[in-house]
Each structure stands twice: as C-alpha cells, then as structure tokens.
Amino acid sequence: MSAAHLTRRRLGIATGVLLASLGTSIVAATLVGPVHASLATALGPGGQSTPDHAILFRTRLPRVLLGAVVGGALACAGASLQALLGNPLADPHLLGVSAGAAVAGALALVAGADPVSPLVPLAAFLGALVTVAAVFLAARTGGRTPAYAILLVGVVCNALGAAALMLLNAIVSYAQAQGILFWIMGSLTAQSYGLVAVAAVYALAGAAVLLRHAQHLNLLAAGEEGAAGLGVDVEAVRRGVFLAASLLVGAAVAVSGMINFVGLIVPHLLRLVLGPDLRLLIPASFLGGAVFLVWADTLARTVFAPGELPVGVVTALLGGPFFLFLLRRSLGRGRS
Asked: For 35, which DSSP code?
C-alpha cells in the first residue's frame, strides 16, 4: 500500500470520526444550558414563536457555531505555526497578532462602539492586519524572514499590546474597563448567524491555504537546506503560512476576544494520535479545535449558572498546566 494511499485512508478515517464528534457536540451543546428548552417544542407547530425556539436557535446555536469556527481557526493556526517555527510550544497568540487585534477592538469600545456591533470585530481585524505587517517587516532582514526572528518580534509585539491594553484600562471609565476586560478574556456571547458566516469564510479560506502548504511544511521540518534542495521556495512558504495563520488568529480574536491555548493543546493531542504529518494534522486540528472550544464554552456558560465565565478563562485554566507539562517534558528530553 503506497504512502499516499495510506495518508488518504487515515485522513478519511480521522476526518469522519472528528466530523461525527463535531456534529454530535454541536447538537448536544445547543441542548445544554442553565435554562431548559425543548427541541420538540421548538420544532413543533407554532414553535418559532415559543421561548424554546428563541433559546435554542437564536441564542445558543449561533454561539455554539461561532465557538466551533473560532476553535477550528485557532487550532489549525497553531498546528501550522508550530511546524513553521520549529517550536512545539509555540502558541498562535505568541505572535502578537491577537494583542494587536485586542488593542484595536478595545479602542473601538472606548470610542463608544456597541460591544455587539460589527464595528468592534472590524476594528479588531484591521488591528490584526496592521500587526501582521509590522511583525513581518520587522523580522525581515537581507531579503529573508527567519523563523526565530518572527517569533522574537511577535513576543515583543505581544508585550507591547498587553501594555497598551493595561494603559487603556487605567485611563477609561470603570464601565468601559469592565467591558474591555470581559471582551479581552474571550467571549462568544450575543453573536448573529451573519457574523458566524463571515468568520467561517475566513477560517475555511485560511485553513485551505495552510493545507495547500502542508507538504512543504513537512519538508521544512527536515531542515531548510534539504527542503530547498527538493525545490521548495522556503521564503514563499514561510511568508504564506505566516500570513494565513496570523489572519486566522486575527479573525478569531475579532469575533471572540482573546482565547488562549486552543492552538497549543489541540495540535499536541492530535499529534500523539495521528503523528506529525501536516496533511493529516491541519484538517484534524481544525475539527478537533472546533470540538474542544464548543465544550469549553459549554462549561463556561453552565458551571456557574445563571452567571458565566469568559471562555478564555476556561481555556487558560486547562492550557496553563498543559503548557507546563509540555515544557517539563521538552526539558527532560533535552537533558537526555
């Protein structure tokens, strides 16, 4: 059996299992909540005028779908960036793109934009674009963009963005500071199907670009010189993957705020099952990230009902210990 056939077979099996898990998760998460709502009533005669229909299809389902889109985008970006930067501990938010998007979104809130209006996501996405350009230009030297330079410049931009957010919180009113803080911590509340559709278009387009470069990333993992010898345009691949992954992160932050560690946890867990082949890992990470964030958000909105936690808090509580575990394991391998 050829390697290509084996990969297609494994891709089909993994995609089928994860798609089934995602479909089941979307249905189950929509039915779970602090207020009981009957699906039979919502779909029955006259169901569209019932509170059950409003709860399930106007409140919960858009939120669940947005969680799936954002989780898929972040995990897909994480898998590709870890391969591109040669750093298994790399998280998409380390590049500073999310911080740039968060600063721009926070500025829109301070300027008086409604937190649920399209202006905040638009401002955040523009902030992500500006940050992507800044990181790329600052890391470029001698016609090349080294992976380590991208990572270092991203860390600096992340720190500057965090400082700018703290400054904003210090000078705005208490009410504005609370709104900014809740948005920064990550939230999937009060979203429309239209916004979900726009986010899904960006996420699927970015994932398609990354999947197109999957084999090139596999070759880069064996070394730049070897990849170049096999005909890979290393700079073009690095530029395309970095821009696509960064815009995925920016689009996710624009509609949900800063949700950390999804791009770290999901690719690592799937890599243990599927191996490092990016042709398998990128699509599997998209679907796995969608499942992960759907359930993380379900936990966020039910564990302290009728109140709720920002979903970014839940992912941070899960991801922080996971990051330390990976770091300790990496250090242990280095000593051995």
From this structure: S
